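Tokens for chain A. Residues wanted.
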């Protein structure tokens, strides 16, 4: 995958809720850990297409299991339009 200057790159290290397309903004706490990876770490990067030559790139991701599964399925099934819709939803959710 190639990246260009049209990409939106966001480090979501300090976001305490799922950064995926779900409508949940429930905050994860030290007592209530539910975001993946369950080890408490972070996924290096999730990349959603925005249009033909730009991407929304989320770095240091913690994400709920349903959004994680959705992302994997859409990529495995080459559902690019669905990934683009998710990118728009995520941008709205994160205010970017």
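Reply:
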């Amino acid at each position: 995958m190639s990246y260009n200057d049209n990409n939106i790159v966001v480090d979501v290290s300090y976001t305490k809720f799922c950064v995926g397309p779900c409508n949940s903004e429930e905050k994860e706490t030290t007592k209530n850990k539910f975001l993946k990876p369950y080890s408490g770490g972070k996924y290096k990067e999730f990349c959603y297409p925005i249009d033909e030559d730009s991407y929304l790139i989320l770095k240091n991701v913690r994400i709920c299991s349903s959004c994680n599964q959705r992302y994997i399925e859409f990529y495995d099934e080459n559902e690019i339009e669905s990934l683009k819709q998710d990118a728009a939803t995520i941008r709205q959710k994160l205010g970017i």
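The longest strand covers residues 43-51. Helices lie at 65-76, 80-94.
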